[in-house]
Amino acid sequence: xxxxxxxxxxxxxxxxxxxxxxxxxxxxxxxxxxxxxxxxxxxxxxxxxxxxxxxxxxxxxxxxxxxxxxxxxxxxxxxxxxxxxxxxxxxxxxxxxxxxxxxxxxxxxxxxxxxxxxxxxxxxxxxxxxxxxxxxxxxxxxxxxxxxxxxxxxxxxxxxxxxxxxxxxxxxxxxxxxxxxxxxxxxxxxxxxxxxxxxxxxxxxxxxxxxxxxxxxxxxxxxxxxxxxxxxxxxxxxxxxxx
Length: 243
Known about the structure:
By secondary structure, this protein is α+β, with helices and mostly antiparallel strands. 21% of the residues lie in helices and 49% in strands.
């Protein structure tokens, strides 16, 4: 059977239309994958903390969200093994606030380290107040500004709400910094045992890249933080799920 030029044109038009529909379906599926999970109201996991490939210690991440939207996130870390013999170090970070429109909005952030004064960042209207080394610092910050721990939970929460890319402000002990965050194209992450599972990988960084994080979340069949890589003023560290 032969197709005339006119019939051939109609056939090509139908083919193009089908390809466009298929492309739209693929894009829709990708967007749906970002929103096809729910961040649980509570969670707990343990991680190996590494620097330069060497294990320094262990860390435990816990979070809980109350029915009224109030949350608490805690990350406790300590050196173990040979690293503990060389330097017995531990710290606890806490973020407390409320979940609003996919943002985990901190109202109080705390960093505790034995032998050192606590570092506290507390919301005060349209500003935050930092208490550190016996001194107080105040600077302006938008309502959705993030601390380090709240950002870890806000990234998957924003993706689940269909908004995996954007900008926000990261609160620090000296000043606030604008950061850009985005989700990688991949729809999977690799667990420490080598299995590949559905997941999302996020990247966030400051404008001059002096602070960068990569955050990998498994989203099915359970939702949990799998891996965290940090580049900042205190060095480069990796957190990898152990259980």
